[in-house]
Structures are given as structure tokens and as C-alpha cells.
Automatic annotation (TrEMBL):
Source organism of this protein record: Corcyra cephalonica
Cytoplasm among keywords: no
Molecular function GO terms recorded: glutathione transferase activity
PANTHER family, A to Z: GLUTATHIONE S TRANSFERASE D10, ISOFORM A-RELATED (PTHR43969)
Residue span(s) of domain GST C-terminal: 88-209
Subunit structure: Homodimer.
A Pfam family of this chain: GST_C
SUPFAM superfamilies in the cross-refs: GST C-terminal domain-like (SSF47616), Thioredoxin-like (SSF52833)
UniProt record, GO biological process: glutathione metabolic process
Name of the protein described by the UniProt record: Glutathione S-transferase
PROSITE patterns listed in its UniProt record: GST_CTER (PS50405), GST_NTER (PS50404)
Length: 216
């Protein structure tokens, strides 16, 4: 079995969201793609992923991209029946909803607000910041009375969301003022297998990148 995950070297995009691979006892052959020098636009990369996005996973010749699609694929293939992605329809639907909330609302609003500031020199937009706060209030509501984002078990929705929420640490968004989000954040950091290697190191690198750009 060959699993190759091609990751973003400078913009975390979820650190590539690989904590689930550790949870499944999978060893990924990680390859960095230098976006600054256009490695993602080279013919060999476009052959794998014509959309030239990162991360991309190649497993025995099968290529899949978008980190949340990668998460679901890995569990479906290598840990069918795992509580990380439950098979019971209602439980799975809830995990899927949280994944879609992450990509379509929470992370998307963060990206719309923060990345133009960091990479384009744009001023902070108060309206966009308010949208992020709205998203965090929703996440706080989802977590009311629950250990994890869909209930009592860690799922890939937590692994996806923790990567997004941790990115906020590089910004001026204070997500820890939301008590349920803060509690959940510390819980996932201490319980997700391989969290430090899969996410924490990249977070520090992302913070370093943001600081270096801000000092120019």
C-alpha cells in the first residue's frame, strides 16, 4: 500500500488534516509542494490533480483532494465502522454537517477575513470579522453539553475543525472567549492521536510566517 499526501508548505490549510491518519495507524509519505515556485502547476502534479490544489492524497494510484474528502476516504477504506466516522445514518449525517459547516462557513469566513490582510496587505474588515464571530457562536452552540462537536466521541469533524480553529491563533480573532469552544479546543488537543505532530508544529510555522510578513 502506498499512501502519499501532498501538503501545503506555507499556508496550513489544515495542516493538511492528518491527525486521523495517526488515529488509524496509517503512515503517510508526506511530500511538500513549493507553491511559491509553482510546483503545483507542473505537468506531473496536474496529472494527479488538475485543480492543482493542496492537500492531495494518492493511494495506490487513486488521487483525491480536499482535506475533508481525504478524511472520509481514509476512514471508509482503512477503518470501516470506526467511531471517527460512524456508519449509522443520523450519526454520520451530523458528522457530515459539521464538516460542511467547517469548509463552507467557519473556515471560509476566516479565510475571507484574514488571508487578504496577510497576503494582500488589505485592512481588517469589520463586517467580515463579525461573520467569523457569528460562526464561532454557532460552534459554541453545537458544543453545548457535548464533549465533542457531534457528541461523546471524537470524530473526523473534530479533527477538521480543530485545524481551522487553531489557525485563528495567528490572527486577532479571540475564539477562547467562547467557553464551549475553549473547553472543546483543549479537549481535542489532548485526546486527538498525534495532534502535536499533525497540527501543532504546523501552527507554529504558520504563526512564524504571519509574523515575518507583518514585519516587512
Amino acid at each position: 500500500m502506498t499512501i502519499r499526501s501532498v501538503l501545503r508548505p506555507w499556508l496550513r490549510s489544515l495542516q493538511s488534516r492528518t491527525p486521523d491518519a495517526r488515529a488509524l495507524n496509517l503512515n503517510l509519505n508526506l511530500k511538500l509542494v513549493d507553491l511559491h515556485h509553482g510546483e503545483h502547476l507542473k505537468p506531473e502534479y496536474l496529472k494527479i490533480n488538475p485543480q492543482h490544489t493542496v492537500p492531495t492524497l494518492v493511494d495506490d494510484g487513486f488521487a483525491i483532494w480536499e482535506s475533508r474528502a481525504i478524511l472520509t476516504y481514509l476512514v471508509n477504506k482503512y477503518a470501516k465502522g470506526s467511531s471517527l466516522y460512524p456508519e449509522e445514518p443520523k450519526a454520520r449525517a451530523l458528522v457530515d454537517q459539521r464538516l460542511y459547516f467547517d469548509i463552507g462557513t467557519l473556515y471560509q469566513r476566516f479565510a475571507d477575513y484574514f488571508y487578504p490582510q496577510v497576503f494582500g496587505g488589505a485592512p481588517a474588515d469589520k463586517d467580515k470579522a463579525a461573520k467569523i464571530e457569528e460562526s464561532l457562536k454557532l460552534l459554541d452552540t453545537f458544543l453545548e453539553g457535548q464533549k465533542y462537536v457531534t457528541g461523546s466521541n471524537l470524530t473526523i469533524a473534530d479533527l477538521s475543525l480543530i485545524a481551522s480553529v487553531s489557525s485563528f491563533e495567528a490572527s486577532d480573532i479571540d475564539f477562547k472567549k467562547y467557553p464551549n469552544v475553549k473547553r472543546w479546543y483543549e479537549t481535542v488537543k489532548s485526546t486527538a492521536p498525534g495532534y502535536q505532530e499533525a497540527n501543532e508544529k504546523g501552527l507554529e510555522a504558520f504563526k512564524g510566517l504571519v509574523n515575518s510578513i507583518a514585519q516587512k
